[in-house]
Specification:
heterodimer, A: 116 residues, mainly beta, four-stranded antiparallel β-sheet, B: 115 residues, seven-stranded mixed β-sheet
Chain lengths: 116, 115
Amino acid sequence: AQTVTQSQPEMSVQEAETVTLSCTYDTSENNYYLFWYKQPPSRQMILVIRQEAYKQQNATENRFSVNFQKAAKSFSLKISDSQLGDTAMYFCAFIGTQGGSEKLVFGKGTKLTVNP
Amino acid sequence: ETGVTQSPTHLIKTRGQQVTLRCSSQSGHNTVSWYQQALGQGPQFIFQYYREEENGRGNFPPRFSGLQFPNYSSELNVNALELDDSALYLCASSFPGLAGGETQYFGPGTRLLVL
């Protein structure tokens, strides 16, 4: 079974500081894709960052970066210089295949609050 | 470029009724996936449509069904509504490449409440 675990239901950080959100996953596949999505209170799910498992280099997108440890099946998200607009639910997700389709398998999410 | 849109935004139904939710995919995307997000949970995969055919299904009963149209827009139909069907229903579109793992872009969702 393919599963994604986010062990931190809630986190908070002060504006301008750095925070790391944890994610572990389980899969028997060798090649796959990992994502972090952000869901603000307005609820539209927005892609934050994407990582291809066969690439050893960690993905970065401006203030967002990941620490991808393939052997440990770990995929954490680091947010630098946190901003009030970063307040949201953050979901770690994995692309798995089922019946030939590509479905996203999500964790339960981490609620991040950025405090002024 | 138009993003993914969904309608309606909110819906209230009673147990046993039927509901249809609609999704317009992002321009150029031929694949639509539907997810159910219960309160406080991550989204769960319902099914995916690719070029008007169902292309994979999650652990949802047959009363959850769908369609995809030639313009790649999609509908999710739920029959015999149950209280547990109350959730946010998300539609996501993508254009699968040969390597796979293409990013799925989400719509704003439809909030369904079953009384």
